[in-house]
Amino acid sequence: MDTVESSGRSALAASKRLASRLPSPSFVEAWELYFGFRVASQCTMGPVMRVRRSIWIVLAVVMLLGVIVTSAGFAGGNAGDAAHFLRDGLGARGRAIGSAQIALADGFAAPYWNPAPCVQSTSTVVGSGLEQRHGGLFTFGVLGGWHATESWAAGAVVLTSELYDVYHVSGGFRLGDAAAGLGVRSYQFGVPGDRGSGLGLDIGARYVIELSTSCVTIAAVSRDIGWTSIRWGALEIEAVDRVAWVSRIGVAMSVPLTQGEWTIEIDGELATRRPPEDMEADFWSAAGDLNVSIGTALQWIGIRISAGIQRYDLRRPNARPRPTIGLGIRVGDLSIDLALVPSSLGSTYLGGFEIEL
């Protein structure tokens, strides 16, 4: 027994002497080992390493947006959330899964959800939809589409109603499993005796991770960067409204099934309705929003059943959840989607169709 213990102590001492002679890893090397940020092919990187690298890329984008927000120095004194009707999103398919759509958007309204390309093969989609909010109090139509190749994509979405029109165009490119895009949006408001207009900017990114039995997509979007200004000029006194600056991070997982697919997505939303006022002490409480959306869809033999919780307010834990449900049918290249968003103020009904050319 003494001989065994002595041998063990000798081996431990030898290993310590060997370790002391090895060079200590630098800060950069330790960083690369943990986050998997070293440039390497996807074949030599394990799934955990790819997930860590993807999360770090998305976090870097969000941190950059935060620096822009805090250093922008915009002048205050303007009303906010002028285009609040767009905060819930567009299209029956996206609304059916709780507006959790920035990672997996692939319908005709996909350019609005995220300007970064999603589909990885050459295809073209066009479609249209109709939405009645609050029991028919507001009604507007949506027309959109996009064309994608293996390396780039471009699309457009148009929203029309009696009081406002919104025109959105976007384009993006793909590099391997990563994609990025840019969108430009024109707002046109009209009320009796006055008109307003503004031009907004969006950016988006996606990163796809292929696992053995599923696919994970991480996405980030920032809409109306810098609080898009809506300027009203027909009246004697010029007024300016602001569109909320909305940033989202989404994580989605797709699992192939026999003759179908199951997907789930969670989106976190950080928004500020207007720029900070001069010397404003509590800007976040006065103008900030923090929401989460979650949705899931089951697609099987041309039938798609969806459900979700839309933009649950994390700052009001006692707030009532906003459920969503939807049904989709695909026959050949034609898809039809229906969605319902119940509300005590009047339910919202959505319908739409699209064709893959």
Descriptive notes:
The chain is an alpha+beta fold. The protein has a single domain, classed as Porin, CATH 2.40.160.40. Helix content is 19%, strand content 47%. Residues 1-45 and 66-77 have low confidence and may be disordered.
Summarize this structure briefly.
The chain is of the alpha+beta class. The protein has six helices and 16 strands.
Q: Tags for this entry?
A:
single chain; 357 residues; alpha+beta; Porin; 14-stranded antiparallel barrel; globular; disordered N terminus
Map the helices and strands.
Blueprint (H helix, E strand, L loop, with lengths): L1 H20 L5 H9 L11 H25 L20 H5 L13 H4 L9 E11 L4 E11 L3 E9 L3 E12 L2 E14 L2 E17 L4 E9 L5 E4 L6 E4 L2 E13 L2 E13 L10 H5 E13 L2 E11 L9 E9 L2 E8 L6 E9 L1
Antiparallel strand pairs: 1-2, 1-16, 2-3, 3-4, 4-5, 5-6, 6-7, 6-8, 7-10, 8-9, 10-11, 11-12, 12-13, 13-14, 14-15, 15-16
**Text of the CATH class:** Mainly Beta
The largest sheet has its strands arranged as 1-2-3-4-5-6-7-10-11-12-13-14-15-16
Low-confidence stretches: 1-45, 66-77
* Helix/strand structural class: alpha+beta
The amount of beta strand, in percent, is: over 45%
CATH topology: Porin
Please give the alpha-carbon distance between the first and last residues. 79 Å
Indicate the percent of residues in helices.
10-25%
